[in-house]
Amino acid sequence: MPRGGEVLSQRGEVVAGRTVVGALVAVVVLAACSGPSEPAPAPTSELDGLLDVILGLDADPSVQPPEIRQAEEAVAACMHDAGFEYHPDESVGTGWRRTSPEVGTVAYAERYGYGETIETEEGRPPGLWVEPLESEGLRRNREYVASLSPAAVEQYERALDGEPWDGAGEYVPDGCRGLAYEEVAPDGYAGPADLRDVKLAVRGVYEAVESDPRVTDVRARWALCMEEAGYPGFSRPLDALSHVATDLWADWQDRYVDATGSPLGVSDYDVVRTTIPDALVELQDAETALAVADATCREEVRLREVEQEVEAQLEDEIVETYRADLDRWLAWAQDRERETGE
Questions:
Q1: What pTM does this model have?
Q2: Cα–Cα distance between 31 and 21 in angstroms, integer?
Q3: Where are the alpha helices (DSSP H) in the chain?
Q4: By its UniProt entry, which PROSITE patterns does this protein fall under (predicted)?
Q5: What's the CA gap between 164 and 167, in Å, rounded?
Q6: Rounded Cα–Cα distance for residues 247 and 278 (Å)
Q7: Quick one: pLDDT at residue 342?
């Protein structure tokens, strides 16, 4: 479904604020590698094309989707009833950017690494320095929480998010935020509630790809290739990417946090690149070396091709099984677009 790089999971879960709430927000909060002004890549399957329309992936990324706006307003009403103040966050579901299909290739890795510490677009900081979108609602919520006592903050957070994880590590909608998003996106996606089966089938594609023997076999060969390249301990490419944002980044920060002579330390990209450029190059070189090894190993074992083959097979099965439901879901999305103009 999602195309380019490692974004299979973007249609499998959704994040609102800092809490997983189903699958409504992540479908429009895509990994940031190519700008929203770039033309969208052509769908790679029939299901892919249908979901682009159903999920609004061809929408304006600066406009908050109506379902998310509805959910944020419901969160505010629920929190008010619980005795707290909450302002709808206008930034949720906006500012998303499509991932370039070049991500994960050797050519891309040689030039940008993963885009975590290297600029992929002039005027836009690398991934690790990108600031989250700031909205008036988010700012007011921060100020309100800062005014509360520690005990009240704990009560506020419990009312907002409840206990969203069961004993098996599964997400269960709870609290004002989880329940509000579940109401507008039953079973993870907006649309008629009686389309539960097809929604769950779409949600299950990511896990099905992850557990498919063809994928686990090729990933084992990728891991061996990475170990031979000097990077042991990774089981999948996402582990390598995470290594940049955790180990490499954390170690570099520890060593250079005071080197800029600025109260901003290493938290501001412009400060870093102007005051300690050699240190920045050191971090970028480490990321590039890892990304090139990763991409090279992917190509050697045909990792991307195998994942795409498995994914395409699963998507075709969904279309064959749920053709009528998909047609009705598509009609619902088209009616919504005509009614809202969004």
A1: 0.77
A2: 18
A3: 46-54, 66-81, 106-112, 136-146, 150-161, 175-184, 196-203, 205-211, 213-228, 237-243, 249-256, 269-275, 277-301, 303-321, 323-340
A4: PROKAR_LIPOPROTEIN
A5: 10
A6: 19
A7: 52
> Cα separation of 321 and 307, whole Å?
21
Q: Which positions ≥6 away from 263 have C-beta within 8 Å?
A: none
* 233 φψ region: left (φ > 0), alpha (ψ -120 to 50), beta (else): left
The mean pLDDT of 2-18, rounded to a whole number, is: 31
DSSP code, position 187: G
Tell me, what DSSP letter sits at residue 260?
A: T
Q: Which residue has the tokens 């649309």?
A: 191
Average pLDDT, the chain: 84
Length in residues, the chain? 342
Per-residue pLDDT, 172 = 77
pLDDT above 50: residue 223:
yes
Beta-carbon count within 10 A of 47 CB: 24
**pLDDT of 17:** 32
**Cβ atoms of residues 98 and 38 within 8 Å:** yes
Scanning the structure block, which residue is given the tokens 């005014």? Answer: 147
Residues 114, 219, 252, 100: what is their CA dihedral angle, to the nearest 10 degrees? 10
Model confidence band, residue 340 (pLDDT cutoffs 50, 70, 90): low
Taking the C-alpha atoms of residue 50 and residue 319, their distance in angstroms, rounded to an integer, is 10
Q: Check pLDDT > 70 for residue 3.
A: no
In percent, the amount of the chain with pLDDT more than 70 equals: 83
Q: Angle at Cα 133 formed by Cα 109 and Cα 135, nearest 5°?
A: 175
Interatomic CA distance for residues 200 and 88, integer angstroms? 28
Cβ atoms 266, 253 nearer than 8 A: yes
Where are the domains positioned within the chain? 46-341
Whether the pLDDT of residue 98 is over 80: the answer is no
pLDDT at residue 15 above 50? no
Spatial separation of the C-alpha atoms in residues 96 and 41, rounded to whole Å: 15
